[in-house]
Amino acid sequence: MKLLVTGGTVFVSKFTAEYFAGKGHEVFVLNRGTRPQAPGVTLIKADRHDLGDVLKPYSFDAVLDITAYTARDVECLLEGLGDFGQYIMVSSSAVYPETLPRPFRENMPLGENSLWGDYGTGKIEAENALRQRAPQAYILRPPYLYGPMDNVYREAFVFDCAEKGRPFYMPGDGGMPLQFFYVEDLCRFMELLLIKRPERKIYNVGNPQTVTVKEWITECYKVLGRKPELVPVPKDVPQRSYFPFLDYDYKLDVSGQEELMPALKGLSPGLMEAYAWYKGHKDEVRVKPLLAFIDENLK
């Protein structure tokens, strides 16, 4: 197929571009050309907000929109496109208000999530714009994504602590649940949508099981053959100052995804692949001063 991937230079969009190029598809990436490009792709150098006629000569079998965060993002791209077939947008679980009962289901009402703020409301607006302009488009709502090319300081932070043999400072008793989705499984699911073209258009995607903070930390340390010394941190310490996730207990119902793709990468092998990538690409991760806060305030 002839595919357009928005972005293509960082984490999910880069992994997506390389995944589909590796499958033999003709992959075009749309970005401003300010970063190195993925191997095997063709760059269309442009800003999605100022496309003019740059995309008009192209005809794509599918658009994989990984970098839509607002209605304007979607509207500008749709106005700039020429002919295209399918359209898949990666949205977010942040579109669900935290006040809804768990697990979140696709037919629940969307609304402002006070923890995610503008990010969540922007994704809602992007979804609405897409559904109005391209009602046959697919919308995916993942939880936390992880894996190779992850430039967000999440599992990389735990790997750093494990490498240094540090104790790990965790929120409370470590019982807060986290839900993840391996980035390659996201690409596999997009591939299935392109092939099977199901009638359903909106899918929560992710691992069906959650893991606790304590379990996640332990799995990250295990990748390096180590066992963490866990130190509870009281609630009055701002969690994001020393830990990479929000204080947010949620779960997505992913039964629709499971019907199409029941087999997923396990968390342990997924983290092993994430660490294998991280060891050679540490300069590509946006490091936050979590360790400095811990050393100055918690030790």
Q: Look at the structure and name the CATH superfamily of the largest domain.
A: NAD(P)-binding Rossmann-like Domain
DSSP summary, beta strand count? 13
Taken together, the total number of domains comes to 2
Over the alpha carbons, how many angstroms does the gyration radius reach?
20 Å
- The name CATH uses for the topology of the largest domain is Rossmann fold
The first-level CATH class name of the largest domain: Alpha Beta
Tell me the overall shape. globular
Q: Helix segment count?
A: 9
Strand content: 15-25%
Which features would summarize this protein structure in a list?
about 300 residues, alpha/beta, UDP-galactose 4-epimerase, domain 1, seven-stranded parallel β-sheet, two-stranded parallel sheet, about 35% helix
What does this structure look like?
- The chain is α/β, with parallel strands linked by helices and 299 residues long.
- Helix 4 crosses helix 6.
- The protein folds into two domains: 168 residues, 3-Layer(aba) Sandwich (Rossmann fold), CATH 3.40.50.720; 104 residues, UDP-galactose 4-epimerase, domain 1, CATH 3.90.25.10.
- The longest helix has 16 residues.
- The protein is built from nine helices and 13 strands.
